[in-house]
Design brief:
The protein is 38% helix and 14% strand. The chain is an alpha/beta fold. It binds S-adenosylmethionine (SAM).
Length: 354
């Protein structure tokens, strides 16, 4: 059974390199003072979002359940694990999907995820007109486009602006402490829908009191759909609700028609969005980096996979670089590579920092 994806045409040039708009901007750093914000022309987003109200489900009406209905439902559930399912979904299908995802994206699915996998992929069987999971998975292995959708369907992209906010305070101090006049490089390697890299960009603008700080951010993810959302930089009101209102005023334009917010073009220009699979043997990333944000993604990988990735991070990091991890991620199993500074921030073993 083939578990390798069909050939891909990803270009392998190095980001943070001369090809990125970001480096062009920062080769001669020009610091625009923050006070110019109000004079910036309004940015017209290229996409529109459907109004929030159209997504709001109708209020639930509670009809009392009759005992007969309940016992009939229970009977159906116990008579078959796939009761009520449109497509048969066998343990063999699940195992095949698990292997495909693990070998190519490093994601280790637990058996508890079977229902999630079924519901996400049943949509794809319907869309592609396949009658069984076996037919669909064969199609995935032969079609690059479907392979991408398959991976996109199975990733978990939960994120928010200034998630685990203490990391942004630490980063601000770090950026302010760098006295050399050079572009500062941050890699955000599981960027999801863009909230994290834009939070990094805002932090950099605040640290330098400038809309064009000397900071370049590479925002990558395996999932092309979330990267497309990040590139647009357009967010529904509920996504930005809890953000500091000053930041919302300074760094976003408000679209009153649908209530959404769009990041200002200056933030957008600080960030290069690219697809990078952390499991790929080659990462088109040019070091040395000042910071790596690798948060809430290692949790999906097993320890050997985590270790392999961390080992490849180290040579990309400056001696003073920080590696920021998610709140429930610990890299103590890689103590021969990294040292903890506390609060899920790590440095290279040979770092002068304590
Ligand atoms: C839960 S989100 C975390 C987002 C953000 N870092 C945060 O902490 O809010 C995990 C992200 O990791 C991405 N991901 C999963 N496997 C990956 C891989 N092998 N390479 C790169 N990104 C991956 C997913 O697509 C998803 O967007």
């Amino acid at each position: 059974m083939a578990l390798t994806p069909p050939p891909h045409d990803d270009t392998l040039h190095h980001h943070f390199g001369a090809t990125s708009a970001t480096s062009a901007t920062h080769s001669t750093p020009t610091h625009t003072p923050l006070s110019t914000h109000s004079s910036l022309s309004a940015h017209t987003p290229s996409t529109t979002h459907s109004p929030l109200s159209s997504r709001t489900p109708a209020p639930a009406t509670h009809t009392p359940l009759h005992a007969a209905d309940i016992s009939r439902t229970l009977e159906t559930i116990s008579s078959s694990g796939t009761a009520g399912r449109e497509f048969e979904f066998t343990p063999v299908d699940f195992e095949r999907i698990r292997k495909m995802l693990y070998q190519n994206a490093g994601i280790a699915l637990s058996p508890a995820k079977q229902d999630m996998v079924y519901s996400r992929l049943a949509k794809r069987l319907r869309a592609t007109g396949k009658k069984t999971f076996a037919q669909y998975l064969q199609h995935v292995e032969q079609d690059r486009g479907e392979w991408e959708i398959f991976i996109n369907s199975l990733t978990t992209n939960l994120t928010s602006f200034f998630r685990e906010s203490h990391h942004f305070d630490i980063l601000a101090e770090q950026l302010k402490s760098i006295k050399e006049k050079r572009p500062l490089k941050i890699w955000c390697c599981a960027a999801s829908t863009g909230e994290e890299p834009y939070s990094l960009a805002i932090t950099a603008c605040e640290a330098f009191a400038s809309l064009t700080p000397p900071v370049q951010i590479l925002a990558t993810d395996i999932d092309t759909a979330v990267l497309a959302t990040g590139e647009k930089g357009n967010y529904r009101k509920d996504r930005v609700d809890r953000m500091n209102p000053d930041y919302l005023n300074r760094y976003f334009t408000h679209k009153s028609a649908d209530g959404s917010y769009t990041v200002r073009p200056e933030l957008r220009r600080m960030i290069t969005f690219r697809r990078i699979n952390l499991l790929s043997p080659a990462w088109p990333v040019q070091g040395p980096l000042d910071a790596i944000f690798c948060r809430n993604v290692m949790i999906y990988f097993d320890k050997p996979t985590q270790y392999g990735i961390l080992k490849r991070f180290v040579p990309l990091m400056r001696p003073e670089a920080r590696l920021y991890a998610g709140h429930s991620e610990s890299f103590l199993h890689a103590s021969d590579l990294l040292r903890s500074l506390g609060r899920t921030v790590y440095v290279r073993l040979d770092s002068p920092l304590h």
